[in-house]
Design brief:
3 helices; 3-stranded antiparallel sheet; 34% strand
């Protein structure tokens, strides 16, 4: 059997490939926290930090869920090659939620705080990435960004949860 529901046929240009021959029995869970070093304002590539989680190697197939435990920064998947994309994203985010020209009522933490909350809400604070054969499954040009929206932020903490089927020998 092809694994495709007959009521959902592939259309021209679509393809389907099994990454596991059949469902794998047995679930494996792992969770850790990671403190990321303080970064300046902007979008920063942090994929390499995730790839250092040794427990990823134990998963045949699964999911890596990352949540950022802060409300003035965000996580997103985007371009990992050209740093100009990250610079342009910071420029566009500042146009979407500027510090000046809008009369925010939440101002007790400084002029960059409320725009940081807006940016965090727009982008989001969690990402789920598939795992296959012990590695994160990302597109060739994809990387995980920490988008730091504050001018003088400190370290940032993430919780990483891995779930899936173990590699069996």
């Amino acid at each position: 059997s092809s694994g495709i529901n007959a009521e959902w046929p592939l259309r021209p240009g679509m393809s389907y490939k099994k990454l596991t021959e059949r469902p794998i029995a047995g679930g494996l869970w792992f969770q850790c926290t990671m403190t990321l070093p303080a970064k300046g304002r902007g979008c920063h590539l942090i994929t390499e930090h995730l790839e250092k989680v040794k427990e990823l190697e134990e998963y045949k197939v699964g999911l890596c869920h990352i949540i950022l435990l802060h409300t003035s920064a965000s996580l997103t998947l985007n371009e990992n090659w050209d740093p100009n994309v990250r610079n342009d994203m910071e420029m566009m985010l500042n146009k979407i939620a500027p510090e000046e020209g809008i009369k925010y009522t939440h101002t007790c933490e400084g002029p960059d705080d409320m725009p940081a909350h807006v940016k965090s809400t727009v982008i989001g604070s969690e990402i789920t990435i598939p795992i296959h054969n012990g590695k994160l499954t990302l597109g060739r040009w994809q990387g995980l960004w920490l988008c730091e929206h504050r001018n003088c932020a400190g370290t940032r903490k993430i919780v990483i949860t891995l779930s899936g089927a173990p590699i069996t020998n």
